[in-house]
Amino acid sequence: MLAQDQSVSTMQAARRFGVNPMTIRRDLKVLEDSGLAVRCYGGAVSAQRITLEFAFDQRRRRHMKEKARIGTAAAEQVEPGQLVFLDTGTTTLEVARALARRRIPCQIATSSLVVASEIWGHEEIELMLLGGRARRGSPDLAGPGTELMLERLTADVAFMGSDGVDPTRGCFAYEVETARVCEQMAAHARRVVVVADRSKLGLAGSVRYLKIEGIHELITDHGADRSVVAALQQKGVKVTLV
């Protein structure tokens, strides 16, 4: 039940298995002692779910103020009626939040379940959740279904996060599946804007998804290494510091 629903209600489990709620509470204690569950009021949640949410929140909190400024600057570039690709990641999440605050009528296509949950419910924004398989260990979609849907779309602008922006080799992701989705987004957008705080500049991840010549603009913070910024500008990349 934990694996399927990510949470368990003590009373529902007792009814399902025909046992006393105290028996379920003892079983949940065993699962908690084994590191598989975290007990809470009325039941328990999967320890894996808690770990994933905590890990994402920890990444989001790094350079939070800088990411918020980057997100605001990116959102200001969007014009009414445009179709926008939003990559998965904590900085693109800030772009989504800034677009929601602007209340600008546009379409957003994303593979990020976190971005989608942030946008959903805002009447001005038409949300398009890219199909695909939910990845293990990350709140986003990937696979052939996602790539096929991207092949049929053309965005006015794609806002891309990055695990590393190397001034010689380009932008990187840590996994092949993520890189393939990023590559498709960049290939089917009229403009590609990379949003990344200073900690990502000068780094190379495991898998490259975009060459330097494919980056139209990089939005980063004022703390960025000036030598990396200069190297990117020499390659023709517009760099915006916020």
Keywords:
three-stranded antiparallel sheet, 23% strand, seven-stranded parallel sheet, Arc Repressor Mutant, subunit A, 10 helices, 242 residues, 15 strands
Strand content: 15-25%
CATH class of the largest domain: Alpha Beta
Q: If helices are DSSP runs of H or I spanning 4 or more residues, what is the number of helices?
A: 10
Architecture (CATH level 2) name of the largest domain: 3-Layer(aba) Sandwich
Whole-number tally of structural domains: 2
**Strands, total number:** 15
- Work out the radius of gyration: 21 Å
Compute the separation of the termini in Å: 46 Å
Helix-strand string: HEHHEEHHEHEHEEEHEEEHEEEHE
Give a topology summary.
Layout: H1 2-5, E1 7-9, H2 10-17, H3 21-33, E2 37-40, E3 43-46, H4 47-61, H5 64-75, E4 83-86, H6 90-102, E5 106-110, H7 113-119, E6 125-129, E7 133-134, E8 141-142, H8 144-151, E9 157-160, E10 164-166, E11 170-173, H9 176-187, E12 192-195, E13 207-210, E14 217-220, H10 226-234, E15 238-241
Parallel strand pairs: 4-5, 4-9, 5-6, 9-12, 12-14, 14-15
Antiparallel strand pairs: 1-3, 2-3, 7-8, 10-11, 11-13
